[in-house]
Amino acid sequence: MAEAHPDKRVELWFEDEARVGLKGRTGHRWWLRGVRPRGLRQQGYEWAHLFGAVRPATGEGFALVLPEVSTAAMQAFLDHFAAAVAPDAQVALVLDGAGWHVARDLAVPVNITLVPLPAYAPELNPVERVWLYLRERFLSHRVLDGYGAVVDACCEAWNALTPERLRSLTTYPWIAKVTS
Question: Containing H/E element for 84?
Fold first, then answer.
């Protein structure tokens, strides 16, 4: 990629999507042995999808909350993400092989190069750990009042992430070797 863009510096980013909705999941809580903890669980079927990209080397993050996962939603994410990338940077965006990532209709911006992960290897994408952290700390054991509240909860959870937290969640040893 460096040969194709000699005037640009290459940034390694990772992208994934998470579904967040009214049908929440339970998390782990400290509780007394032998006593069942009380918890909230909501019955409903409204979701929002949190599209997120993280740069482990710096702890930078970029996210959009969208109503669906589709080629159009991925296009909106890529367009907004490309506009936020520094002018002197070429982004290598590592992502899984979801259908909306590889769709023929997807017009990838010139400052982004998509790098697919091997099939059935979600553990290679460090953004998966971000989703786990957000669900455990911010998005479980809550009752949300409709789609707007789901979007607000996603935004609050993402905005609570600091660069230091993102770096600690996403810096894998093999990523440090690749980026150094």
Answer: helix 71-84
